[in-house]
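$ run holo --ligand "iron/sulfur cluster" --emit tokens
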Amino acid sequence: MPEREEKTGNNSDLGMYLHVPFCSTTCDFCAFYQERPSKKGFDLFFNGLEKEVERFPANHSFSTVFIGGGTPGLLKVDQIKRLGDIINSQDLQEDAECSMEVAPSEITSKKLEAISEIGINRISLGVQTFDSGLMSELGRMHEVSKAVDAFQMIREIGFRSVNLDLIFGAPGQTLEQWENDMIRAIELQPDHLSTYCLTFEEDTALYVKMAKGKIPLDSEKEASFYEKAWDFLPRHGYKQYEISNFAKPGFACRHNLNTWRMNEWLGYGPSACSQYQGVRRKNLSNLEHWSTQLNDNLEIEYQEYQNLSKFELARDAVLFGLRLNEGVDLKILAKNFSLPLTAFDPVASFFLNLGKEGLCESKKGKVSLTPKGRILADAVAKDLPELSSVLIREKSTPEKQQAFG
Ligand code: SF4
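-- output --
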């Protein structure tokens, strides 16, 4: 079979994110904004969404779409079609990657057919674990067999790409259980695997348990879970391209890559985030309030709103770029963000120090974290310096040239 062409995007890519804020129950680890499904809630959501895309259109075509949540898969067939009408009223590129998250417990073949008909070509299935004991630890509602059935239904419809989401680091989980989860996952042969370390976000049921001392935190164990995935999945045909993401050749998620590269995306729906034309903003995490201000054509109030300079954007591109296996090329970032290379001098010095500690390496002008550095990625991110806004032309030292490639 010829290798699939890798479409990893470029810096003119534009993503569309739609947040469907409904879940039947709340998982113990969940910190996403979601509401229980109701007729009133769906009316508020769809009416608001129609107004929001009309009021905030993009100025060029979308290269990716991602429908997340919440649980978009709980939408009924007629609601999926309505969502499709909203998406397809916008200018999408012909080869756009269009993803939708689905939960195993909510999906039927009729819904999958409707999802395919509206142009979704990539499904992300929230399996989390194939271990029924861990499943109940996570407060998930589906039976393990449902995940396998859902995967088979998805394959039967013939979506272009299928991702499985797995979580590790659940309370009491052993390394052996984690390896078994990965074995079960690759038996299904998805095109992409996202492996997330369970995090204890405030206001979640798991956080409360942890705060009461019922769940011990063990960072060494967490590191060994990461290392297990980094070793196991590439040996089975899934190339790692980001700390938590693995894909068969040609199946890296273009939507996420666009976000990590600090390009632009527009988010629609309550709590959705956008980064567009130098502004990063987050919609209100309140369905009723978000919808009312759109329907009544009021001035929009955001939960968060930040004007970003190109220095801040470029620094964030370094921060997220370091999480990618391809690494960061400071010369390319300088060009993409129209900044002089000298603006990156503090970052280049930072890289040199990381290199001395064995936390990053430079290959063909690209700097990436070593496995040891990836384990410490959060600490590295905290220490990443600001870019220099003093734009003086200084002579580069040989050491800095090495960091710039
Ligand atoms: S299905 Fe997803 S969004 Fe809904 S409660 Fe569970 S983790 Fe949160």
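-- notes --
The CA atoms of residues 88 and 314 lie 32 Å apart.
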